[in-house]
Design a protein that fits this description.
By secondary structure, the protein is mostly helical. It has a single domain, classed as Hypothetical protein af1432. The chain is built from twelve helices and two strands. The protein has helices at 22-29, 49-70, 77-86, 91-94, 99-102, 106-124, 133-141, 148-170, 176-187, 193-200, 210-214, 216-224, and strands spanning 2-3, 10-11. It has a two-stranded antiparallel sheet with strand order 1-2. Strand 1 and strand 2 (10-11) form a beta hairpin. Helix 2 (49-70) crosses helix 8 (148-170). It is globular.
């Protein structure tokens, strides 16, 4: 309700009719620091869901800059980063459900989507300001949309798995060779120029034998990638994003 008169009016919430426990959301989201990935695999280095989301955000940032500044596509950077830091937030309620498990059958996929929607509605939604809820529902429950921002999140998620797999393989964990090959197969199907550019150039920064680690499919695909020389001359200021 409004109190006072003239320019002195201000909004005063009525008792029992106004709650916005955003602090609770921040506290609960910190549980993602303790929830570990790859529950069904031995890992030399255990990584939390929170670490993964930060890494996805960092990867997505770079892809978004390339997609916009090198290849001239419109990208909403704020949307990319919000999707990235929320894309696995539901796991504070459900734990880390492995991707292959989620997709094992159509019934399993539908059941997990129902569980996630219920978890969001019963646990996370009440912790958010009302005006944020629709947007956060989208970013948490459906971040990998078919627009460029959603595709960037999907690609960044795969690239983080690639990096995790390489780290584990370098530590002597051969279990992750299949994870790396599978992730590579998904990556080369991404229709983003920034991903193709990553495959052609950034992968060399990992200091590995590309064919040995990634397999022949990605190695051969990488050999087919060529870029217009103009791409390397583009230096538009990233502040324009």
């Amino acid at each position: 309700m409004l109190t006072g008169g003239g320019n002195g009016q201000r909004f005063v919430p009525e008792a029992g009719n106004y709650t916005m426990p955003f602090g609770t959301h921040l506290i609960n989201s910190r549980s993602l620091m303790e929830i570990k990935r790859y529950q069904n695999k031995y890992c030399f280095k255990k990584r939390s869901v929170a670490e993964h989301m930060w890494s996805v955000a960092k990867i997505a940032e770079g892809l978004a800059i390339w997609e916009s500044k090198k290849f001239g596509n419109d990208v909403d950077m704020a949307k990319v980063l919000q999707k990235a830091i929320n894309h696995d937030m539901i796991e504070q309620c459900t734990g880390d459900i492995l991707g292959p498990t989620k997709k094992k059958t159509a019934a399993m996929k539908d059941a997990i989507e129902e569980i996630e929607e219920l978890a969001f509605r019963e646990e996370i939604e009440k912790e958010l300001p009302r005006s944020w809820r629709n947007q956060f529902r989208s970013y948490i429950l459906n971040p990998k949309t078919d627009d460029v921002e959603g595709k960037i999140i999907r690609a960044a998620d795969i690239i983080d798995t690639v990096i995790e797999s390489i780290e584990e393989i370098k530590l002597g964990n051969g279990i992750f060779r299949d994870v790396l090959i599978d992730s590579s197969s998904y990556l080369i199907k991404m229709d983003l120029m920034s991903v193709k550019y990553f495959i052609k150039y950034a992968i060399t920064d990992f200091d590995i034998d590309i064919e040995e680690y990634f397999g022949k499919e990605l190695f051969d695909y990488r050999e087919t990638l060529e870029f217009d020389p103009a791409v390397f001359e583009v230096c538009r200021d990233i502040r324009d994003l």
